Amino acid sequence: MAAAARADRPGSHRPAGRIPRPAGDAVVNRFALFSEMLLGGVIVLVLSLPLVTAPAAFAAGAEQLRRHLEGRADSPLVLLRLFREALADTWRLGAATAGAGAVVVLNLLLALTGMLPVRGLVLPATAVLAAVLLVAFLRTTASWRPERGWPAARAEARAMLGRDWTGNVLLAAAVGLAAVFVWMLPALLAVAPGTLVLAAVSVRYRALSRSA
To answer: Is 12 a domain residue?
Structure first.
């Protein structure tokens, strides 16, 4: 009986890329997922503060959430270990992320303060650019796996950006909602990374299930 129970656990003998099957009581699982999202999101936010570490932090958060869904070890210490692994060979991506973020924030600040003569064009164009960059960022970080590394993650993200337009729209909507929530209540910035990680992982699972 014990062996059978272990065999039925989520994540047991599951091929890579397959969607985890829910097990147990649905309400408990959803509450556990919500708790994992909140805790993981706060840790991801802290790890992302230097900006250049944001790709590694979000990639580790996405892998941590997958581990939770698949019934594998998912403690905060595991998340920190994943973060250290994701930092390898990611400094160029981190520098590009920090640079793009600085440009977007600067444009938004200049447009909002009226210092730009074409504010009516710069503000929406910058918002659209930020959404596109964030969708690509979330696609890439959600595709990272410790056993494959960043080159495979970038290749998968490019492929999904080109063929999964519905997923791109869903991620853009998640980014927009997170921005609105933080604008309405700045304290929600603490949980925004967790919601974005959850959205990125969910959209990736959706794309994999449709291509299977």
So the answer is: no
- The Cα diameter of the chain in Å comes to 72
Q: Which domain holds residue 178?
A: 24-211
In tens, the pLDDT along 89-101 reads 888 889 998 888 8
The 3-state DSSP class for residue 113 equals coil
Residues 6+ apart with CB under 8 A from 199: 138, 170, 171, 174
d(CA 83, CA 81) in angstroms, rounded, equals 5
Under 8 Å between Cβ of 208 and 164: no
DSSP, collapsed to helix, strand or coil, labels residue 49 as: coil
Structure tokens at 209: 């299930």
- How far apart CA 4 and CA 121 sit, in angstroms, is 61
8 is a domain residue: no
Evaluate if pTM is beyond 0.85. Answer: no
Domain total of the chain: 1
3-state secondary structure (DSSP) of residue 22 = coil
> Do residues 156 and 167 make contact, with C-beta atoms less than 8 angstroms apart?
no
- Kindly state whether residue 168 falls inside one of the protein's structural domains: yes
Confirm whether 2 is domain-assigned: no
